[in-house]
């Protein structure tokens, strides 16, 4: 078959900002477990079918041990968020991992997100005010998509929002596959680490009503809490995860809804569809980035293919979310789709801790834009939207809009 005569380059090159690469459908049908070549030149195994991806994400034999000597390097110099030492500090599995999730997860419940919703609405309205003052056209990513999740996660962690620009750069370097060199990444990680170390010391001296302070006041490992290094790395991980993916998703969601104007009109006519529209945007996101890499510490079988111990597997949740066997008319955007068991937030014990936060932010942004800027439209043809390249997360360089 054509897609597997030689190992595909991964991520699969694709110019279309919102559409999937053609190879996904072919792989799902004919070669759901396929060899790919990563930016490092190392080989990995790519999964594109819904059932396979779901199985692997729930299977404890597929681990995050991407620093193992025989694990594939994702980037040429072996740096970046998946393979850094930091990735090994947060417990990977078992009771320790569950304990960490319980401690941190208390801050990310749907109930707590509902309590934060009014503050999020105020932030969204203030950012839209600023955008309107500056006038159209505007870059929705820079004006709203990026600052809103940064404000929110900085607020939750007790980080001064004035430092947010530094976080965006530090995050980008941590998420780099090919964009930054090893030396630059190491300097940025050092600065980020030092910043968070100082923040932990400040919070220890003067605790506030925030997640970092709560992790510190919970005590150390002997009291059932986390060590200082775990607190520090958790803070870094939440800052990176808590803004980068949602910031990009806001731009992609709005672009998808404006790409076909009838979708926007439908939401204006029936705002009750906002919740299902957000879920469908998450499912249909064809530009979500690298996917989830996993390292196999025991031989296992996926879709009839035996994978030896030491295999690095890449789960493409975005490809799985377009699997016709899991979703009727999987390639179509159905704003009423329910249930919608997409895998945008993963599945199983490692599903995204911040999914209630991301969902709430996406709903708040969409509601605010429909309410405040009903005439919103893309200021360029969809074909001119450009993907962010070289990072582990997918996004659009900018989202030019007018109203």
Structure description:
The chain has 403 residues and is of the alpha+beta class. The chain has one domain: Cytochrome P450 (Cytochrome p450), CATH 1.10.630.10. It has 14 helices and 11 strands. It has helices at residues 23-30, 50-58, 94-105, 110-134, 140-145, 147-157, 164-174, 182-205, 211-217, 228-259, 261-269, 274-284, 317-320, 355-372, and strands at 8-9, 33-37, 43-47, 62-63, 138-139, 292-296, 300-302, 305-307, 312-315, 377-378, 400-402. The strands form 3 sheets. A 6-stranded mixed β-sheet has the order 1-2-3-9-6-4. Strands 5-11-10 form a 3-stranded antiparallel β-sheet. Strand 2 (33-37) and strand 3 (43-47) form a beta hairpin. Keywords: Heme, Iron, Metal-binding, Monooxygenase, Oxidoreductase.
Secondary structure layout plus pairing:
Layout (H helix, E strand, L loop, with lengths): L7 E2 L13 H8 L2 E5 L5 E5 L2 H9 L3 E2 L30 H12 L4 H25 L3 E2 H6 L1 H11 L6 H11 L7 H24 L5 H7 L10 H32 L1 H9 L4 H11 L7 E5 L3 E3 L2 E3 L4 E4 L1 H4 L34 H18 L4 E2 L21 E3 L1
Helix pairs in contact: 4-6, 4-14, 6-10, 7-8, 7-10, 8-10, 10-14, 12-14
Pfam families: p450
Protein name: Cytochrome P450
Keywords: Heme, Iron, Metal-binding, Monooxygenase, Oxidoreductase
């Amino acid at each position: 078959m054509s897609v597997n005569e030689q190992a595909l380059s991964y991520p699969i090159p694709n110019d279309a900002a919102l559409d999937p690469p053609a190879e996904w459908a072919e792989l799902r049908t004919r070669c759901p477990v396929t060899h790919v070549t990563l930016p490092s030149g190392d080989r990995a195994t790519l999964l594109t079918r819904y059932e396979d991806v779901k199985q692997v994400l729930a299977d404890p034999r597929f681990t995050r041990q991407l620093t193992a000597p025989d694990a594939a390097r994702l980037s040429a110099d072996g740096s970046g968020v998946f393979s850094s030492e930091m990735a090994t500090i947060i417990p990977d599995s078992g009771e320790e991992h569950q304990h960490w999730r319980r401690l941190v997860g208390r801050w990310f419940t749907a109930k707590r997100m509902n309590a934060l919703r009014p503050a999020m609405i105020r932030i969204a309205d203030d950012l839209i005010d600023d955008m309107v003052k500056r006038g159209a056209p505007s870059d929705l990513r820079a004006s709203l998509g990026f600052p809103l999740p940064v404000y929110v996660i900085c607020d939750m962690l007790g980080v001064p929002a004035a430092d947010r620009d530094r976080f965006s750069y530090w995050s980008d370097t941590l998420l780099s596959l090919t964009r930054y060199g090893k030396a630059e990444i190491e300097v940025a990680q050092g600065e980020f680490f030092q910043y968070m170390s100082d923040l932990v010391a400040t919070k220890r001296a003067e605790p506030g009503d925030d997640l970092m302070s709560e992790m510190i006041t919970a005590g150390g490992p002997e009291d059932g809490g986390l060590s200082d290094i775990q607190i520090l790395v958790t803070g870094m991980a939440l800052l990176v995860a808590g803004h980068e993916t949602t910031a990009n998703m806001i731009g992609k969601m709005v672009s998808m809804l404006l790409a076909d104007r009838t979708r926007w009109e439908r939401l204006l006519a029936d705002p009750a569809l906002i919740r299902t529209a957000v879920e469908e945007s998450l499912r249909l996101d064809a530009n979500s980035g690298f996917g989830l890499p996993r390292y196999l510490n025991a031989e296992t079988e996926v879709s009839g293919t035996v994978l030896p111990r030491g295999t690095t597997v890449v789960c493409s949740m975005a490809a799985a979310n377009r699997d016709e066997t899991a979703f009727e008319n999987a390639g179509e955007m159905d704003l009423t789709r329910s249930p919608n068991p997409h895998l945008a937030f993963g599945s199983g014990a490692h599903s995204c801790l911040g999914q209630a936060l991301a969902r709430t932010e996406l709903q708040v942004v969409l509601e605010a834009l429909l309410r405040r800027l009903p005439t919103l439209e893309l200021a360029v043809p969809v074909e001119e939207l450009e993907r962010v390249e070289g990072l582990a997360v997918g996004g659009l360089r900018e989202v030019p809009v007018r109203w």
